[in-house]
Prior knowledge:
Blueprint: H1 2-22, E1 29-31, E2 37-39, E3 46-48, H2 55-72, E4 77-80, H3 87-90, H4 102-111, E5 118-119, H5 123-127, H6 144-158, E6 168-176, H7 179-184, H8 187-190, E7 194-201, E8 206-215, E9 221-224, E10 228-230, E11 253-259, E12 266-271, E13 288-293, H9 301-307, E14 312-316, H10 319-322, H11 325-334
Parallel strand pairs: 4-5, 4-14, 12-13, 12-14
Antiparallel strand pairs: 1-2, 2-3, 6-7, 8-9, 8-10, 8-11, 11-13
Amino acid sequence: MKTSYIVKLLTFLMISQICITDAYAGEPVRRTRSGIIIIGSGKNVRAVDPFGGKSENGVMYAEAANRYKEVFGDSIHIYCMPIPIAVAFYCPEEAKEWTSDMRAAVDTIFTHLQDAVVKVNLFDVLSAHADEPIYSRTDHHWAPLGAYYAAKEFARTAGVSFEDLSTYEADTVHQYVGTMYKFSRDIAVKNAPEDFVYYIPRDVEYNTVSIRYQVGKNNTILKETPSTDNRFFYDFEDGNNQAYLTFMHGDLNTTTVKTSTKNGRRLLILKDSFGNALPGYLFYSFEEIHVVDCRYFNKNIVTYAKDNHVTDILFANNVSHAHNIATSTAYLNYLTQ
């Protein structure tokens, strides 16, 4: 029985991998001058960023998470959840020489984590759903559906409650063309708009407060607004290329969401823009969620966590950001500034 289960599991994973690589089998593949990989043609064209992170930078990211565990000790759970980018799942064989092995890069991060830092591995979770719209075709971000599956895996790992997607209200921005047209300047991307579908939680109360930042060159903070009531979800008209700003209106803020969930768990998410789509699925899971962007936060994070009674900290950066030295450096600086 055990052997049969293992065989079935391996067969499923092999089929999943085949579905991923064969999704664009026989379709044209090319690179733009900016390095963006264009896969397929017509209404289903997909544009993806290649991955080229250096392993030593991934080690530094792991060491930043380790340092947080050393500083906070047993008082706070630390989780590390590197988020794969689309090229990991939608890169045809003939284009793999243009990108590095992302799964190996994440494995390197995990290898260098202390045992006390909880690993949240998204590769198999997202692979199992790669035939669903979990990544935008015309934007460098994942789609909200991908963030849902990631949040579900994180909630399982953290041991908190989680609601099925059927309990959410779906909303759609039609004729969406995201950042990849700007990045690639490829007309095929512009001519292949998609639906941007996001999900709003029901039957849970939540209040959102934000500190908003005005930045100058090199992301220098010029001004910050006092903490004010805000919205978590923003509406965009069909055809608006800013639809990913649905969540908290983007990155230029530190956001706190207080929910009607009462379990004593308070989460701090350390993220880049990929992380913006995560909190909305965790309102049933935590009574407070604090969202900090790795480029704009300007406070001492030890004091911040203590003042807000944080119980859990999640590192949630896309794998490219996790391999950017500036990301790890910022997180380490937050401990002492």
